[in-house]
């Protein structure tokens, strides 16, 4: 369960933003949105959903981009560039794209995350010197790195490497560590690399591969960050596929039927040349098939690509973060998916749904709590993004936001910010003027 994510000096965000999935104080109502988990003797609470609003180019997608970049850095264990282009997020592969382009003074790029997994509260912080924006040949360096478990420091790294109270993870330590602790600490301190994460290298090798596996498994399988939903592909893989065979996944096909597909089935066909199966529309009791792109609408394909992620999140208790989640999908389908995450009888494993949108239907006090409604706006002078929640306004005073307020109406009259007045009229007036001048 994700509790908090922060980033600083990341693309349009110069100052630190804090994306919190912790319930704000004094918020009442919609208790189905509150997830509960017991860590040691402490009760941890989290939100099951969050929706991000803001005008185009405000920086909404940069929050999701920061999450994906941080996840990728951890999983590969280094801050060097990579040639892996499996994501359309180029900042994942080329880290020189990360620093804020308007920053006049060299500044660190900072990330932190807090989440729960298997009865542990994990905090991990990373501060990087990546140089300036587009500085490709810069000698990058990890400035600070810190791991905490159940609010106890495990290790911290800046100019030197220090270890805290390892007893909090005693059940996860390497068996031979106790008798070789002094030597392991000395070896770890002498083998730090400027561009390598200690967590994924020395700590994993010498201290606790089990804790690192717990963190990396959560990052890989339960922190499901989709930077661009329109880039989801329409292929899947089977362990032992038979060529020219039609595969119809019953659950997905049933969901597609509820969504609106009723004249045909949705399935996969394995081509002659490989193991990747192509999404197809299946007709006449499996005797005829067309590529889905040739027959289905874009919205239908988007749904079929996305729904397995929703199933995976709910069944595994994962955090699904997705850009433009609602693009090309009918509001009724969207509302039902959101309600699945809000349903205590369905969402039994503390799954979370986080997405950005331009659709105002979610600005509804009966659907989302104030602390679940997030905003991003861009300052016209500094050109930097700012992130905040509806709950940050409080409930008292002229600018207070109360539970029974009309969030949608107030948003469009610019009570909350994060909205831009768009008027293209001057452009066309100038075009017409120039044309008359000729």
Automatic annotation (TrEMBL):
Domain ATPase AAA-type core: 50-363
Source organism superkingdom: Bacteria
Protein name: ATPase AAA-type core domain-containing protein
Pfam family, one: AAA_21
GO MF entries: ATP binding; ATP hydrolysis activity
Native source organism of the sequence: Sporolactobacillus nakayamae
